Amino acid sequence: MPKIIVEIMPKQDLLDPQGKAVANALRRAGNDVETTRIGKRIELHYKNQPTEKDLEKAKELAKDFLSNSVIEDVVDVYIEGQN
Amino acid sequence: MPKIIVEIMPKQDLLDPQGKAVANALRRAGNDVETTRIGKRIELHYKNQPTEKDLEKAKELAKDFLSNSVIEDVVDVYIEGQN
Question: Which residue among A7, A8, A44 places its CB closest to the CB of B36?
Answer without folding.
Answer: A44
